[in-house]
Amino acid sequence: MANIPMDIITDLFLRLPATTLVRYRILSKPCFSLIDSPNFIESHLNQTLQSGDHLMILLRGPRLLCTVNLDSPDKVTDVEHPLKTGGLTEVFGSCNGLIGLSNSPTDIAIFNPSTRQIHRLPAESVDFPEGSTTRGYVFYGLGYDSVNDDYKVVRMVQCKGGKADELVFGFPYEIKVFSLKKNSWKRIKRVIPAIQLLFYFYYHLLYRRGYGVLASNSLHWVLPRRPGLIAFNAIIRFDLDTEEFGILDFPEDLAHENIDIGVLDGCLCLMCNHEFSYVDVWIMKEYKVEGSWSKLFRVPKPKSVESFDFMRPLLYSKERDKILLEINNAKLVWFDLKSKRFRTLRIKDCDSSYSAELLVSSLVLGCKGDPTEVMRRKERLAREDKIMQERNKRDDFLSKGFKLVL
């Protein structure tokens, strides 16, 4: 490759998946420097997002975490990471090739499955209010703050065990945000009253857990209606730039329906379930403009499923004539927008129930790894080297002593 101009190599490398580029770092020092450079990492991510190439599906289940090449469902790769040995690891979001991992509110990491690089978040305790002794529900969110070029994790923890438990809406809570650029946590003190209701009602109604949905530089959660208590649905948004909460407007006609939220083509979308027989998908084409909401398509209940509790669109096919859907947290199907027919996406050696996240192949976090993990590896190698040197000295001494005896 010494005779190939570097600009041509750069152009070729931008079209390759991150898993290949990690191996190509050892080809030469120029290749190593190129692939590890921040400019190349950013350009590679932009190229991947624009082209739609190298897309993967991250499957997660009770004992399952693996990636599947969308174009080749027979290529299934187990995802190994340091948190996996600690217990039942949650995956709370996917963004630019990164996923959020959690074993507990204080054991959290950002992980890149393509490069196997992990950044463990500094352990941040939950500051329980006076009288509270245990934590209740926990909400997470992972997002990229494009305004500040920063990756952030939101952690909302409900505290229980005190006198507040006796109140109808009195559960205390704590909200903190982690900044990857600063590698530190910050407590959010100014919140809207709807956050309290979110903790109280969310888990009773929605099929999914409380993971924030990322769109337009904000994370979103649904506060669902509850007959007799909350008359209408609400969408809570957290602006990653200003780090403030707010309420997002949506069509009044959907205020009393069974709704959930997702993202499609980078836009926030609503899934409105009509008596579990069909789902209407609405999309917000221009963010924070209520009049930009429009109904995109309707998905009837597939004959292959007994109930239609949950449905989420993931992405369009390259021809944009089909939509990949996640149904009932158990299967993936292609839905033909014209014929209204379904085709199951069959994944090799994967028969159990699972939920899915879209995952792009990226070099975000780089290839050098978490500084803490790198330091541990260096210390381990130094100890092993010291032990080897002492062993060599001992062997040399014994060898010389044996010769003197002879």
UniProtKB/TrEMBL annotation:
Organism phylogeny: Eukaryota, Viridiplantae, Streptophyta, Embryophyta, Tracheophyta
Listed name of the protein: F-box associated beta-propeller type 1 domain-containing protein
SUPFAM superfamilies to which the protein is assigned, alphabetical: F-box domain
InterPro entries: F-box-assoc_dom_typ1, F-box-assoc_interact_dom, F-box-like_dom_sf, SCF_F-box_component
Residue ranges constituting the F-box associated beta-propeller type domain according to the UniProt record: 88-342
Pfam families: FBA_1
